[in-house]
Write a structure and sequence with these properties.
120 residues; mainly alpha; Multidrug-efflux Transporter Regulator, Chain: A, Domain 2; 6 helices; 3 strands; elongated
Length: 120
């Protein structure tokens, strides 16, 4: 992972290049810095609502609703709601345990949870 100090040096270098009229090179550095910052999110163990929805077999909007209703723990990061992977794994374990579904896959358990939500 790239350190914050390295990212700051890259930003300063991009600014210096802009001052020298090297806009194209500065933009290339900016793009790399942006990509490095976006790549840092998965290492935090967070999923977007769409990613979490795919795991559970529901829409990203369902995940957002569950977070807002307090049924699932999530965090606002910038303009996005993010769900920790361990919270999602615990949710699946609890759903599986409450239904005594030891012999089915996580995907099958997620589908059953989804069906239960839809029947409300």
């Amino acid at each position: 992972m790239i350190s914050d100090e390295t990212l700051q040096i890259a930003r300063r270098t991009a600014e210096e290049l802009r001052q020298q009229g090297e806009d194209e090179r500065a933009q290339a550095i900016d793009a790399l810095v942006d990509a490095a910052q976006q790549d840092a999110l998965p290492t935090l163990g967070l999923l977007t609502t769409s990613e979490a929805g795919k795991v559970l077999g529901v829409s990203g909007q369902s995940i957002k609703n569950w977070v807002r209703q307090g049924q699932l723990q999530g965090y606002r990061v910038g303009g996005r709601i993010m769900v920790p992977k361990d919270v999602l794994a615990d949710y699946v374990r609890r759903a599986r345990g409450s239904l005594e579904l030891g012999m089915i896959s996580d995907e099958e358990a997620a589908n059953l949870v989804d069906e239960g939500r839809r029947s409300r």
